[in-house]
Design a protein that fits this description.
It is built from 13 helices and no strands. By secondary structure, the protein is mainly α.
């Protein structure tokens, strides 16, 4: 009798445990969806819906006002035979490739210097370097445009004060590209510096102490220890920098507005001008769709080459 009662109590306990487990599982599932719902809603409203609308418009001749006729893939066919599209894409790729090394080297140099105990007032210097990150790209562009102005710019004033001749920064295509590059790297250096500082501070001092015992000098310490250990962080910096460089827009608008001529008209400027200046929204939407796949492919290649930053 006692054995039977004991078995029944065991079964009742197992049943209660199962019910409690199911209740906990349901609560966790409900909590998960409650936490994810705001992000999912915003992601849907501000990404998925515009993405769907963009693809729909790319199949039409929508002019932003009255005309909207379905034309199928005609916009894509026209874009792939448009030399201006390829020229803007080529300028964008060249700009990204030339500036990417600076996006890594400058913040890493700042981070190495500002994590050294030999440098004084590190907090103040970090704040000053990070300050441009807090400004909008348009404000940074206007500031740099004033500094490199041909007639009243600070840089030309310094050059002339030293006995030189002021340069035509805005009229020369190469100089205009240099100005945009300087502004872009200046505005981004602080953000990536902070990322590198966090990664450097997470490297164990025991590794450096062991290296010192083995007689490793400063040069070897950086290239044999620090830089390899920063590989995941460097991959993150490369990925974010590549995306930011490829979609550069507000900064260019604040400095050159794509000029002189089309020398600094990158792919986003090309899409903007096609859509909002020429009122060819369907054509611009098709160009944006093609560019989205190109950028996604570049990011995919970076992930494959670096194995997600593990290499």
């Amino acid at each position: 009798m006692q054995s039977k009662t004991w078995k029944l109590s065991i079964k009742a306990k197992e049943k209660n445990d199962a019910m409690n487990h199911n209740t906990i599982h349901k609560n966790l599932k409900r909590s998960f969806w409650m936490f994810i719902a705001p992000c999912a809603t915003l992601f849907t409203i501000f990404f998925l819906v515009p993405l769907a609308l963009n693809f729909f418009f790319s199949l039409t001749n929508y002019d932003g006002w009255k005309t909207m006729e379905f034309i199928g893939l005609q916009n894509y066919v026209n874009i792939l035979s448009d030399p201006q599209f390829y020229a803007a894409l080529r300028r964008t790729m060249t700009y990204a490739v030339l500036n990417l090394p600076f996006r890594i080297a400058i913040p890493l140099l700042f981070a190495m210097l500002l994590t050294s105990p030999k440098i004084k007032y590190r907090t103040i210097i970090r704040t000053l370097i990070y300050l441009p990150v807090l400004l909008s790209s348009l404000v940074v562009g206007i500031t740099i445009n004033w500094m490199f102005s041909q007639t009243h710019g600070l840089i030309n004033f310094i050059i002339e004060a030293l006995g030189g001749t002021g340069l035509e920064w805005g009229a020369n295509p190469i100089l205009a590209m240099i100005v945009v590059s300087i502004a872009s790297n200046w505005a981004a250096a602080g953000f990536f510096m902070i990322i590198y500082i966090g990664a450097i501070n997470n490297i164990s001092e025991d590794i450096y102490e062991a290296a010192s015992v083995d007689g490793v000098n400063g040069f070897q310490r950086f290239f044999k220890i620090t830089f390899p250990l920063l590989a995941p962080t460097t991959f993150l910096v490369i990925l974010l920098s590549t995306v930011n460089l490829l979609r550069e827009f507000a900064l260019v608008q604040g400095i050159t507005q794509g000029g002189p001529g089309t020398s600094t008209t990158f792919i986003v400027q090309y899409i903007f001008n096609t859509g909002f200046t020429q009122h060819r929204y369907g054509y611009a939407s098709a160009a944006a769709t093609i560019v989205m796949f190109i950028f996604a492919f570049i990011a995919f290649v970076q992930f494959k080459i670096s194995n997600g930053g593990d290499n």
